[in-house]
Amino acid sequence: MSRERRFAAVEDLGPLAREAFSTRLERVERLRGGTKKGVYRLTFERGPSAVLYVWADTENFWGPGAEKSEMGLFLAAHREFSELGVRVPELRFADGSGRLYPGEVAVVEDVRGGTLEQRLGSDDGGLERLAEHLQRMAGHRSAGLGEVGPVKAGEGRRTTCPEVVLGWALKDLGEAAGRVEAIGHKRAAFEELLRGMAGGVEPRTEHSLIHGELGPDHVLMDDGGEPVLIDIEGAQFFDVEWEHVFLRIRFGEHYPRLRVEGLDEGRMRFYRLAQHLSLVAGPLRLLDGDFPDREAMMGIVRRHIGEALSFVRGPCVGGDLRIGRLPG
């Protein structure tokens, strides 16, 4: 499926700029952002630039119809991280009424120091400061389970982390098995393994604050060399191992500098398989639409097919990477 998308332009955002900043908007630049929201740099006639987040159907490459307010998730997570002393972009303005723009919008500080990904391997202390944030987050706990906003409102999930992850993994397995020949051939083995792993993990009564998708591209660096977490809408109270599986995948050889004490290796292994399956099924789902960076997304799919298959036998070989109904 593909459709024509119209992104935000200067003429669309004039009312927002006047109400939020009492100045004229001179330039709008669409930045690389997430798959659910648009990210724009706003340059004004007076004052510093800012970054605009837009949550709207025209910006959502997963398709229309979100179940929850993404801006609401963002605001709740922003408040939680800020109160904990974990650096996020300063919030300048937010509006979910649709009065100023057809969608939910938030305007935040424009952090211009680049990403931590661009600095990996340099000796600037960014990883060490991020590690301090991760320690603080791991120690910030709640009996509630799920996204920050619902948990704070007493509406967290009525289940356990292993049960949640098993549900996610079985759904992703079903989707991947229908698309990837080698995973389809091993579907029964995967399901047996997932259920066995889940059964061997003891549920916890407290859960840590996690970002949920913390790669080095989701960490900006400010002028003082401090890491600034972005794309925080998925933040939740969950098993800390879920965060650290993703960190290990994304930070690679640099991950040991971010590791926290007390991680459960059995839980890590279960969550790692679940995330590999997610990183096969999710990108393929995204590519059924009109997401533009298709080759990069297929690279993620191919890598995680091999990683997932290594759980049920040795590493895959070339023929195992055949994918049915390959997106155009």
Automatic annotation (TrEMBL):
<dbReference type="Pfam" id="PF01636">
    <property type="entry name" value="APH"/>
</dbReference>
<dbReference type="InterPro" id="IPR011009">
    <property type="entry name" value="Kinase-like_dom_sf"/>
</dbReference>
<dbReference type="InterPro" id="IPR002575">
    <property type="entry name" value="Aminoglycoside_PTrfase"/>
</dbReference>
<feature type="domain" description="Aminoglycoside phosphotransferase">
    <location>
        <begin position="66"/>
        <end position="245"/>
    </location>
</feature>
<protein>
    <submittedName>
        <fullName>Phosphotransferase</fullName>
    </submittedName>
</protein>
